[in-house]
User: Fold these one by one.
Assistant:
Number 1:
Amino acid sequence: MSGADAVAGAGGRALPFDAVLFDCDGVLADSEGITNEVLRGMLGELGWHLEPAECVRLFVGRALKDEAPLIREHTGFEVTDSWLADFRRRRNEGLRLGLREIPGAGAAVRAVQAAYGDRIACVSGADRPKIEMQLAALGLAEAFGDRVFSGLEYARTKPAPDVYLAAASALGVDPSRAAVVEDTVAGVTAGVAAGATVFAFAPGDVAHTAPEALLAAGARTVFTAMADLPALLGA
């Protein structure tokens, strides 16, 4: 993108994007491992015993209700609203006890915010109470304000692009001029389908997706440390 196409940042410097859209889980909140262990435990109670990496591969970044057929196939159990509510309750208890930020995420968000102002948003496939609880716990609620979007509030959540298209529209930007920060195949797929440029976070731990899978899904680049993100975004 040329300098003529770029927008001006807070300091009058040209920026390569019109907006930056952050996923939450695994990008800002170090929550995937906690959620994964709760889900593994509940699936184990149904007789389906998964290794951590396999559970991540099958479920991370996707709405659990959308994976009901897969759960039924392996357990014979029909996922109910009551079971999903129990999962969310147990998940939230774990998050309240053990949630931490992804190392450097807070500083990265504040650096990007300093450059992009209110042209940033948190765009997650999770339910809104979870997103808002985590942003508040991490001290990031003020940075995003009311620019928080839940994929579960749209007809289709990730890997469909709906929530990213909605966020771009709310910010008044063309989605092709937005940068998306993601860490899952479902999220990268959603960002690419929306027409955005996707930067994929892959720190190499068991709770995150392998870089090769993120690149295959269409990410422009993969980075391993949140401290590198502001420079990648021209902030």
Number 2:
Amino acid sequence: MNYLKGKTVWITGASSGIGEQLAYACAKRGARLILSARRESSLDIIRKKCRLLGADCFVAVFDLSIPEQVDRTARKILSEHPAIDVLINNGGISQRSTAVETSAETVRKIMEVNFFAAVRLSQWVVPVMIKNGGGVIAVTSSIAGKFGFPLRSAYAASKHALHGYFESLRLENRNNNIQVTLVCPGRVKTEISLNALSGQGTVYGKMDSGQKSGMSAERCAEKYIAAIEKNKREVLIGGRELMMVHLKRFLPALFYKIASRIKTT
């Protein structure tokens, strides 16, 4: 059976990278799509491609870093699409700066986009899902949500926070048919490093070598959707870099030795 066929799927961060490929993967499976991001022109192009794949597709443009826009958009979406079956909290922003040189404002913005926006949207959507008999909340975390890493202090903190919040949400709703899937990508070839923030909040603007050689966003998206379809609580997606998660757990001394030597950009 095709789990997503006929279901309404709302994807944030859908204008490029993993989010864009998630849109195509869901469209191929017959889902009805709501795509969100800041870049309306990019979303319009993706919407047209999804419609060519046979999917009903709608666009909601807003900025995850502005709580008022998050609330206003959620209210509007739920009034127009009262049955959200799957919410994929994928929108996010990374960081390329040391903890000491990163301003409090930059830390706050990263937390707002990566953590608080996902929380706010879920607080809007989960009650509707419960009323409708259930649903799926999927969250794009990172392997940086499993350990700290140089030049990623605020980014790692935001991803760690996602695990604490959404694992709690899952347990609280175990009798409400609410599935929660946390997805932890490693190195995926996207624009995440190009759009990352420096310490003072300016755009980093460079492609990391690790990102450039990473897994394709398309392959990542297919594994992401497979995790949702199989009702996985958590899934790691990537290549050899995933070993760091296991080293941190079982051989922490070796983990810290290796992590201190890895090229961070």
Number 3:
Amino acid sequence: MTILEQIGFRLFFAAFVGLLAAASIDLDRNRYRSRGLRCAPDRYGDFVAYGFLFFPLMLLLLPSKAALYLHGQFSLLFNQVLMTVLLLAWMPRLRRRFSARTCAGLWVLPGLSAYFSMNFGVWRLEFDPFLVIRLSRSVLWTLLWIWLAGACGVLLWKLLSHLFFRKHILENAVQAEQREYGLMAAVYQSLAPSAQGLAKRRKSAYYSQCRQVEAILDHRHMLRSPEVSTPLTIGLTKKNTFLVLPDRAYSRGELALILRHEVVHLLHDDIHTKFSLALLCAAGWFIPSLWFGMEFVSEDLELCCDEMVTEGMGTDERKEYAGLLLRAGGTERGFTSCLSASARGLRYRLKRILRPKRREGGLSMLGLAVALFIFFSGAIGIREKVGTAQNAILDEGWQICAVQFPSQDEDCTDPAILKAVEEQFRSLKLESELWKDRHSLYAHGISSSKGELSLILAREDEERMRVVIYPNRIAVYTGKNSKPTVYLTSGELTAIEN
């Protein structure tokens, strides 16, 4: 496939995935509205948790895929750096035109798309990268273990920080009053009038979000704590979710706004999104731009919540809500939804609240962002320096026992020819293209190349291997119907037929 054909197919595939992503988001939003939920969230983050847990497990079960995963991390690095540069340049303009949930999605959605595509390894496509990096096997494995140690360290730090903060605020907490539970139930029903019917249908896409809110009501999990200065919700499971209020008196209007804010966060599943983003930060801990971008994601999640809370409000109510944010400043730690945490973003939040403006849903922008990052997925490729055929194959006990020439029907076992072929074969330098996983051209030992040479190798346990020599490549078959392992070669293997 030529370079122009590669680019053309990348553009076609990226456009298809971008349109599919935009259509899926639009369908999800409409399903929320049709069920009576006034604030339709965009839920981007939960699946990355499964990806983070799956791929390290794959490394343990399938060590041969470890290098492929590291190759994907290079692609994630490139995409996240590109995303951060573009968004930092355009975010002020984007925030003026598009809704906050769209801006949050621009930070999160393309990065998740790049993470899962893994240079199209998951899509089973084999596009050639724009830039190739050559690394030896020892360096590759060293980098892999450094990445794994860093990812586990960051994840452990975030989990421990969350648990310590949770213990600190719940240790001296007391249960809220009955009137406050009644007010929360009223707020919940005003935001999601069909919520009870949805929560009873386990197959509903809204079941878990509604159950998070109802768990607080059912299990008496609204608390007051002297250790918090701003209202927040903490917890990752239904029965362990708590809505915690500061130990101070609120008017009924202030309390209604606080509860409305926290219920919107729960219906948007923002706590799980932040947990998923923490997993993404752990997986890409070596990418500074990823950490920087996650702070903006938190700001945009709060802006999105503000938009939903103040929808339909008059000027006086908006001023009251803005004053509440000013008085409720605090520190956000762990996996929590927080009424007012970021001093940097508070000024912009207040401006958006007091001067509301109709903004676009941004489906086209989200689709374009996904298409852009799918196009650049796999932009960086890694070639693993395997070594020579001597240490990669022959040192494992294999010996050449026959040679198959294209022009002969029978195998050649002439000792002189076998010795000449082995001397040339053992010195071949091998490299592996990590972005190629299936090598369909060689899947059945068939190639359009002419004049290939086949070597039959055997070991003492009578196991056999077939090595097919192509121009600048060799394909190693260890089983009758197995997929080959294909290596690039820096030299050629020739044998003179006598």
Number 4:
Amino acid sequence: MKKVSIIGLGWLGEATGLLLQSQGYQVLGSSTRLEKVEILRKRGLDAVQFSLTPAPEGTDYSRLFDSEIMVVTLPPRSRQGDGELYLQQLASLRELITRSSVKQLIFISSTGIYPNESKSSLYTEAEPINTSNAGNLVLHQAEALMESPSSYQLTVLRMGGLMGADRIPGTYFSGKEQVVGHTRVNFIHQADAARMVAWVINQGLWNQTFNGVAPEHPFRREVYANNSSTLGILPPVSYQDAADEKVGRWISSEKIRDTGFTFDFPNPLDFTYAARP
């Protein structure tokens, strides 16, 4: 039974941990809050308290580094400050990893790393990204930091907008005015995101980068209207005018699909949700 450690049993990390555990892996995860650790244990996931301030702190967290495989789901929170703390946390974590038994690492990144520019073709993993064109400079720096020469094999998963379960896109713009509705979405359902992590591990897809985005890209206003009609959510009051319906970034998921991975939820208009507002 292979051991998998998950740094950050949050919204995606917990779903991933439960899935991997159901597939026979021995899973141990972390939370920064002791009360969350107790909740996770009651849900059947072994967990320890672990935080990076950026120095490591916690209780019995050395167990996290006694595994072959690690999944890092730490959110960058780059909207808060300049992201320096996040990069320091990753540097501290990477130092711990290089001195551990971890041999394979999955780093959860985001499609927000791609340039904030529209183009006629979809953005792929081969897109050149540098400090001058990165849509999110902190993400670019984070990936570079984790990709530095090290003792482990690294696969980066650039997830799109994580939706499904209790995350319903229409709720974020319900009743608001001048909402952007003419761009296409790059969403992924929680279940597919967790399945993609498990797929990389099970198939041994190491030292690669993959986009995690549903293959279909409906317009935002279509998604909000669908949430309104199926879930009873108040739709936006008004939308911004747009002369060109094709503006916005589109992200390709072709590379991961070429490995044999299939999406249970290929169209965001068909996403299921576990709770209503």
